[in-house]
Automatic annotation (TrEMBL):
The keyword Lyase does not apply. GO terms for cellular component: cytosol. Catalyzes the epimerization of the C3' and C5'positions of dTDP-6-deoxy-D-xylo-4-hexulose, forming dTDP-6-deoxy-L-lyxo-4-hexulose. Belongs to the dTDP-4-dehydrorhamnose 3,5-epimerase family. Keywords: Isomerase. This is dTDP-4-dehydrorhamnose 3,5-epimerase.
Length: 182
């Protein structure tokens, strides 16, 4: 696997090595020793999967304080644009975001450490999204920052008329009102 540091400290792109043959392909999707040697210690405790149709936008989500989660995300069907927003006040990239295309074809993975808000929008007819998290689900600590916050200025490659959001995400808060990390 190829571990690529991004312009935001702690955020990584990971490209698995894909072995194709006449049967199809094989790849190692997660390898703890390699992950830890490149990125650092991690203890993933839960695997999540969601299916979404075209235009679905989930985000920008995070869990506050001690419930913060690192996420290792990838797409097994379809294509999404995935976005991570730095909520770490001590970071030189506080309030900045990074977006990457993740697809069934490129098989890229995106590692988002604790202290970020995360979201994605579906660009294919359907997308199956899967991710590991290193902290338990804590609905009482959940927060959603509104996807079109003006301060963040995220460039989503979809028209607003195409977007489908959950009621919770339609009522996301402004970035300026979010609870940040140290
Ligand atoms: C996230 C999560 C949800 N749920 C339940 C709660 C709810 O009834 C249902 C759907 O939840 P949501 O609407 O929050 O699902 P969703 O909008 O897909 O939430 C996810 O969005 C992406 C962008 C993330 O980064 C994830 O951390 C997570 O917040 O699943 C769990 O049981 N466990 C979990 O870990």
């Amino acid at each position: 696997m190829n571990y690529i540091q991004t312009e935001i400290d702690g955020v990584w792109l990971i490209e698995p090595k894909v072995f194709s043959d006449e049967r199809g392909y094989f790849m190692e999707a997660f390898k703890q020793d390699e992950f830890e040697a490149n990125i650092g210690p991690v203890n993933f405790i839960q695997d999540n999967e969601s299916k979404s149709s075209f235009g679905v936008l989930r985000g920008l989500h995070y869990q506050k304080g001690e419930y913060s989660q690192s996420k290792l995300v990838r797409v097994i069907k379809g294509k999404v644009v995935d976005v991570a927003v730095d909520l770490r006040q001590s970071s030189t990239t506080f309030g900045k975001y990074i977006s990457v295309l993740l697809s069934e074809e490129n098989k890229r993975q995106f590692f988002i450490p604790r202290g970020f808000a995360h979201g994605f929008a579906v660009l294919s007819e359907e997308a199956i999204f899967t991710y590991k998290v290193d902290n338990k689900y804590a609905p009482q600590a959940e927060a959603s920052i509104i996807y079109d916050d003006e301060t963040l200025g995220i460039d989503w490659p979809l028209a607003k008329s195409q977007m489908l959001l959950s009621p919770k995400d339609k009522q996301g808060i402004a970035f300026k009102d979010a609870v940040y990390f140290e």
